[in-house]
Amino acid sequence: MVVVAEGLDRLFEALRRREFTVVGPTVRDGAIVYDELESAADLPTGWTDEQDGGHYRLERRDDEAVFGYVVGPHSWKRYLHPPFLRLWRAEKRDDGFQVARDEAPRKPYAFLGVRSCELHAIAIQDRVFLEGEHVDPIYRERRENAFIVAVNCGQAGGTCFCVSMNTGPKASQGFDLALTEVLEDGRHYFVVESGSDRGAELLAELGGSEATEVELTAAEVAVKNAVGQMGRSLETEGLKELLYRNYEHPRWDQVAERCLACTNCTMVCPTCFCSSVEDVSDLDGEGAERWRTWDSCFSGEFSYIHGGNVRQTVKSRYRQWMTHKLATWYDQFGSSGCVGCGRCITWCPVAIDITEEAAAIRLDDRPSEQ
Amino acid sequence: MVPHPFRVERVQRETADTFTLTLEPAAAGIEIRYRPGQFNMLYLFGVGEVPISVSGDAASPVPLLHTVRVAGAVTRGICELGRGGTVGVRGPYGTPWPVEQAEGSDLLVIAGGIGLAPLRSVVYHLMAHREKYGRVAILYGTRSPDDLLYRSEVEQWRGRFDLDVDVTVDHAGLNWHGRVGVVTTLIQQAQFDPDNTVAMVCGPEIMMRFCVRELEDQGVDLGDIHISMERNMKCAVGFCGHCQFGPEFICKDGPVFSYQRIADLLDVREV
């Protein structure tokens, strides 16, 4: 189906009628972030982002593209696996204490503007929180009813490498609707595809028309353009084995000289799932709460056991992070932990580049030292 | 994944900094079942939560026994609660010692320091099913005689004709007339058939490494050696990421591992 740009207003209305809280991209503090949106007017129309290692700038576009940017510092894990969340509250009682779990958000989320790499990231977190021996009820409650409107990328950013990771730029599954934005010959429209029954039902309410051959081709060309624009690439062939046999490699020392262990890469990563808990009590000691917060393998206390931190050096923490993303993740969850979104490269204050680090080790493979 | 309140029935002092807590569920209807080697998360109201191995007899799981060493705010607070206090418990979690797979084999139970706590459940199990095992040796080492855990109980085990129990300390004063030396020296003297032996080892990582080396020298297959690992844990169910050890989550893939499975990782510093 083809829906004209104004159809986005109808999309918002249709989602609201279904009682969804719409979350999508908007411009704030010089970046495109995800937040709850009121209407299509909140979308970053006419903006794009310029990205490179340690570099992110918003720029005005010379057109009115709504999704003419790549990805910003936020990812959908903010909503599915919130950065700061109370797990439960307990009250003291005569026979000990009673625990009450917190409720899930009242209205399900509709995520608008989910990129293909992000769909893959959500699928990866699904495997972590839903498909193992234990299920995280918080993630499940938020994930189960979420409505996903994907957007196929019509351009790639300077740190993108989804083509290497086989995760984009076109959404292949895991969405209710997928839009491809086309601006051509003075026309501005979306080619919309449904990926579920409820998606198809909603699509019928958007007042679209059957897509013509020309429109479909234009959408295909847009995505093809993105494929050709990838700012980075990563050779994944044998990558797991490469890293497993290079736990001891001088490159880890070199990257540690630059790495600030600031945790930015883990905060912006759409698949990083580590968390910590903090137990707190009321001042009168009668009530207590447990809070869960995002945590990072780059912090010292992350690996603390009585007597000290297991990973004392920044070298060991960077190695843990990168080896987890690109190697041990396969053994844990059956896929790479990296989707090639490039956020860790863009938001690293010293521009450490995971693709460059992996390539350096590949170029100087030292299996004998293990 | 929320803690259930348990009442502290008894606090038994084991050593200067180690206590065994006897815990009963505060409310009815809580089923308790665990296997030797598994652990629970113990919660001190408003303060925090720590992973602690179960050290009782899995065949009679209530009351629940946990031996806790004072190492930080939570363990200190738990040990200071006293009779009538409340501890939160969730679990059990993790992999057990392979007591069933070890049937028919000689068994070496090798403990260092507080490492005897998770292995005591193994000793209870094998005493209850003694006929299913070959020769059984319990080899226990601590830093000093004052650090010996369950001392009178170990002496009782030593009085049995169907267990070889040997104890050594790293250093001792004049009132110690037992063995002095590291626990690996006991392996050299123990009676077992290396081709048909299962070893279960728990203690500091360095002690486990040297035990494994000695067992390997004696001809025990690395796949028949099992060790119990420890790492920082927040969730105990594989979500928080803290306990990762290469591809392993200590909380759900361990804490008990076949040595063979993690041997390569143990050779790398700061994994």
Map the helices and strands.
The complex is a heterodimer of chains A (370) and B (271).
Chain A: E1 2-4, H1 7-17, E2 21-28, E3 31-36, E4 47-52, E5 55-60, H2 77-80, E6 84-93, E7 96-101, E8 109-114, H3 116-129, H4 137-144, E9 147-152, H5 162-165, E10 177-184, E11 187-194, H6 197-203, H7 213-228, H8 239-244, H9 250-258, H10 264-268, E12 275-281, E13 287-294, E14 304-305, E15 308-309, H11 314-333, H12 343-346, H13 354-363
Parallel strand pairs in A: 2-8, 8-9, 9-10
Antiparallel strand pairs in A: 1-11, 2-3, 4-5, 6-7, 6-13, 10-11, 12-13, 14-15
Helix pairs in contact in A: 9-11
Chain B: E1 4-15, E2 18-25, E3 39-44, E4 48-53, E5 64-69, H1 73-80, E6 86-93, E7 106-112, H2 116-128, E8 136-142, H3 151-158, E9 164-169, E10 179-180, H4 184-189, E11 197-202, H5 205-217, E12 225-228, E13 244-245, E14 248-249, E15 256-258, H6 259-266
Parallel strand pairs in B: 7-8, 7-11, 8-9, 9-10, 11-12
Antiparallel strand pairs in B: 1-2, 1-6, 2-5, 3-4, 3-6, 12-15, 13-14
Ends of chain B: how far apart?
28 Å
Question: For this structure, what is the CATH class of the largest domain in chain B?
Answer: Alpha Beta
Q: What is the total tally of β strands of chain B?
A: 15
Counted by DSSP, the helix tally of chain A is 13
What composes the largest sheet of chain B?
7 strands, mixed
| Number of E-state strands of chain A | 15
Quote the distance from N terminus to C terminus of chain A: 56 Å
Query: Rounded to an integer, what's the Rg of chain A over CA atoms?
Result: 22 Å
Any idea of the CATH topology of the largest domain in chain B? Answer: Rossmann fold
Strand content of chain A: 15-25%
Mean pLDDT of chain B: 96
SS-derived structural category of chain B:
alpha/beta
Number of domains of chain B: 2
* Strand order in the largest sheet of chain B: 10-9-8-7-11-12-15
CATH architecture of the largest domain in chain B: 3-Layer(aba) Sandwich
- SS strand fraction of chain B: 25-35%
Helix fraction of chain A, binned, reads 25-40%
Q: What class do helices, strands and sheet pairing of chain A give?
A: alpha+beta
Rg of chain B (CA only): 18 Å
> Can you write the helix and strand succession of chain B as a string?
EEEEEHEEHEHEEHEHEEEEH
The portion of residues assigned to helices of chain B is: 10-25%
